[in-house]
Amino acid sequence: MMNQLQGEVIAAVAPSSNLGDYETTYNEFKWEDVEKEFSWSTTGRLNLAYEAIDRHVDAGRGGKTALLYSDAERDESYTYEDLQLQSNKFANVLRNLGVSKGDRVFVFMPRTPELYVSILGTIKVGAVVGPLFEAFMETAVKDRLEDSGAVALITTPTLLARVKRDELPELKNIIVVGNDVPTDDGLTDYRSAMSEASSETEIEWLEREDGLIIHYTSGSTGKPKGVYHVQNNMIQHYYTGKVVLDLKEDDIYWCTADPGWVTGTSYGIFAPWLNGATNVVRGGRFSPADWYQTIQKYGVTVWYSAPTAFRMLMGAGEDIIAQYDLSSLRHILSVGEPLNPEVVRWGVKVYGQRIHDTWWMTETGAQLICNYPSLPMKPGSMGRPIPGVEAAIVDDNGKVLPPYRMGNLAIKTPWPSMMRKIWNNPTKYEEYFRIDGWYISGDSAYQDEDGYFWFQGRIDDVINSSGERIGPFEVESKLVEHPAVAEAGVIGKPDPTRGEIIKAFISLREGYEPSDELKEEIAKFVKIGLSAHAAPREIEFKDKLPKTRSGKIMRRVLKAWELQLPVGDLSTIED
Ligand code: WT7
């Protein structure tokens, strides 16, 4: 089990000045000390949007650039004051539509400044934000809006076509951002509503335990789970922004994640603005040239991305790096899946920087185990729990295991940004806390004698493809809707660039014959019905799928077939 890379250590190149007191008092660390840095600790008036935007304006920093945005057509810059006024307007637009505290308001649109303004405005009225990936198709969109009981949605004319309005009675208002907004009932034109709205608003003052955001994420069974987070998260967003992202006031920070994913909100919106940094948002798709151009153009200093992107950049080679000036970079971080040691070494070589791995989950709301700047790095390790967080490897009975023993990666409860519920599903929520005093992550890992954690894999069947978490059940459910598919079992197959790809094993209905055309058609069916990232990249037809006597498809047997490993205990198999 011991990792062969265990011996390798890369010293901290830039000890974090921000960690400062927090690290020296590692053992006496108190979250209450972090809380004192928020305005509500003295005023009692609490709202994350105020804390992230308005507070800086009130402190005389309104002229500072908050958002630098560009895509193929637009190139814009917004100060903190601009965002304050725009989000006030949007809050008024929502109020005029009758939206109020606790309502769920979803955003389904590409990364544009309007998306950020919508999210901030939603928080200002005390409503709960629900971000959706732009890539989602009809079923994925409907499932999430329905489960959450969303009352309003902000989208674009193109994406509106994927919203099954007649099947969503609770969705009373849709705000459409773009040209040629249709004039149907229930549709509001963002631009005209914004131009009529006042730029002054009454911020809804909230409690720490009031709702903030619901991120839908996948598990191994059932539909996606609505992970519900509260305002209290801001404590950890702010603190990790400071000690892990190492944000300082003059930083130009770029998080490459989409807000459809928790990284794109916790670290693409909240952490940078709570820390008063300048936040870069780049619309459009991944391309090495575009990305390096973005770093050069804005002089990005702190950059947070994902292993799959770093691997693709590595694949794009060093010649392209030589064409850009990337000397502004001083701190690079990664999240989402295991960060390969060779990527870390490559980063040191080509960027002159260690790429700092961070571990956390949608459910944890913020970073927990990290290579923070002052920590000597062991490439391949996720790092150590940050001050304030306690992690351990426990067995299924909750016994803490000694170094090098593999087991459940568990976090001592509570921490500020821990999820507070799974929407509509208390049973699922409780499963995470089935061992007293611990949150059970679903990841397996071990710890070394220096307290570093080493990721080993998922305990369940959840697939991690290019850092996106995909539930096999959701894909299987879509597959069996196809007329040719009798049964389907879906697994993650190891892939050098994407971490894993989705592979589907399919048995066909009577009258259908296996063919490459059929494979393509089935993959396309999932792509159109669910989303591109959920579509299987590989399909294999089988006469029969391995099932338990209770009829459950045994994904672990499919995986063993794929990897040519022993299939293990088959006592529950059907025949
Ligand atoms: C799962 C959570 C919160 C943003 C990350 C994605 C995997 C995450 C790492 C890492 C190895 C990682 C885990 C985890 N994961 N970070 N640094 N090393 N694996 O959030 O979609 O909720 O997925 O991603 O398996 O459980 P998510």
Automatic annotation (TrEMBL):
Key words of the record: Acetylation, ATP-binding, Ligase, Nucleotide-binding
UniProt cross-references to InterPro entries, sorted A to Z: AMP-bd_C, AMP-bd_C_sf, AMP-binding_CS, AMP-dep_synth/lig_dom, ANL_N_sf
Single GO MF descriptor: acetate-CoA ligase activity
AMP-dependent synthetase/ligase domain span: 59-422
Top enzyme class: ligase
AMP-binding enzyme C-terminal domain segment(s): 474-552
TM spans (from-to): none
EC number: 6.2.1.1
PANTHER family found in the cross-reference section: ACETYL-COENZYME A SYNTHETASE, ACETYL-COENZYME A SYNTHETASE 1
Designated name of the protein: acetate--CoA ligase
Lineage: Bacteria, Bacillati, Bacillota, Bacilli, Bacillales
